[in-house]
Amino acid sequence: MSFPDGWSQGEHTHDGVTHPTYRRGEGPGVIVIHEIPGITPEVATFAQEVVDAGHTVVMPSLFGTDGAPMSAGSTVRALRQVCVSRELTKLRTGETTPVAGWLRSLARELHAELGGPGVGALGMCFTGGFALAMMVDDSVTAPVLCQPSAPFAVSPSRSRDVNLSPGDLDIVKGRCAAGQQVLGIRYRSDPAVGKRFDTLTTELGDAFIRVELDGRGHSTVTAHRSQVAVEAVLAFFAEHLRAPAAG
């Protein structure tokens, strides 16, 4: 399946690792990180909503087949890629996913080009916590965690883990203490998220904004899209990415 028209394909390289990227729009930058199985049509539709709200959106392609719909086959193939990738953590606790360094580099480059207070970062499902890891870099001023689900919540300790090393968590907590906010969105009964929202509330306090939706859905802005969730994301980006008016 071809990727939707209107998106410019490029690539970004950091520390010898290159991933494709897709870009569209004008205005403050936002990096939208796809879920498993990849950049599905639903992910692209959500990214277009962010573009339409007045943002430059960059979507990196980390795994999966770009533009392919979600299916049992595409999910299995993406999981195989994820399981063998050294860039991605699946079960280990107290560790920042290695691909965070690549994503931070992408954020710095986008911020240097576009200027302003910073860029937004949104992850979803398996990549939900990646936006928090990107916040370690000052270029990221609007991190959004949609149903963060890594490490896989197969035990109580993994259910509570936020996919950050202790050092990176300290940096995130310091930024929050200085006024930074983090937006988290989940369906209240989604077991994949585990107890992570409780951990984030404990660690970040009032700086962690919880949006919890009723029901047993999972993909808050894509397959099980909630208008409440989408509006919360767009309002968060508008608040944190627009420069204050002069005077």
Automatic annotation (TrEMBL):
GO terms for molecular function: hydrolase activity. It comes from the Bacteria. Keywords: Hydrolase. Pfam families: DLH. Residues 1-24 are annotated as: Disordered. InterPro entries: AB_hydrolase_fold (IPR029058), Dienelactn_hydro (IPR002925). SUPFAM superfamilies: alpha/beta-Hydrolases. The keyword Hydrolase applies. Residues 26-144 form the Dienelactone hydrolase domain. This is Dienelactone hydrolase family protein. It comes from Nocardioides hwasunensis.
